[in-house]
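Module 6 notes. Inverse folding takes a fixed backbone as the condition and produces residue identities as the prediction. Think of it as a translation problem where the source language is geometry and the target language is the twenty amino acids. Below is one complete input and output pair. Work through it position by position during the lab.
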């Protein structure tokens, strides 16, 4: 049975596609790519059908990541097929929990940086959209740091299903 993770930010062109591509690479490195499906979406549909922001693509490529992306808007009906919905900031967390059709679905929503023990109380990944390259690089650093803990949690859930 496939374990499904969806990363969500505002427009699905900066943070969430970055998290999707980084986490998919971590899943593949761990040999879990046959068991874990990774995608992303936005809370809004402003950029639906667009590719990732060119600055996101450039920072990912500069750091050895590859992968295409087409923006889409998160739909409440997706909760039934998802195991984890990973919000990139507290605004997304609240919006997604309000969209959740059931309490069980609302419990699937978590903040990405909650998987990074070094994050402390600051669990938001700042939106780099109005910033420069440094903001996108900082976003990538936060995503990579949280991906380690997220992978450990997903691995534990996947192994729990197999056992």
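Target side of the pair, the amino acids:
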């Amino acid at each position: 049975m496939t374990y499904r993770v969806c990363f969500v930010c505002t427009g699905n062109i900066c943070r969430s596609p970055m998290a999707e591509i980084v986490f998919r690479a971590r899943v593949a490195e761990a040999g879990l790519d046959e068991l874990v499906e990774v995608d992303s979406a936005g809370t809004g549909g402003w950029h639906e059908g667009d590719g990732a922001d060119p600055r996101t693509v450039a920072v990912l490529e500069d750091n050895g990541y590859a992968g295409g992306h087409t923006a889409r808007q998160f739909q409440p009906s997706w909760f039934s097929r998802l195991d984890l919905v990973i919000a990139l900031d507290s605004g997304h967390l609240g919006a997604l929990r309000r969209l959740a059709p059931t309490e069980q679905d609302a419990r699937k929503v978590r903040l990405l940086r909650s998987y990074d023990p070094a994050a402390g109380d600051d669990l938001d990944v700042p939106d780099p959209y109005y910033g420069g390259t440094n903001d996108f690089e900082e976003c990538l650093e936060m995503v990579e740091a949280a991906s380690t803990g997220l992978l450990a949690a997903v691995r534990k859930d996947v192994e729990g299903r197999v056992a």
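Reference fact for the lab report: The mean pLDDT is 97.
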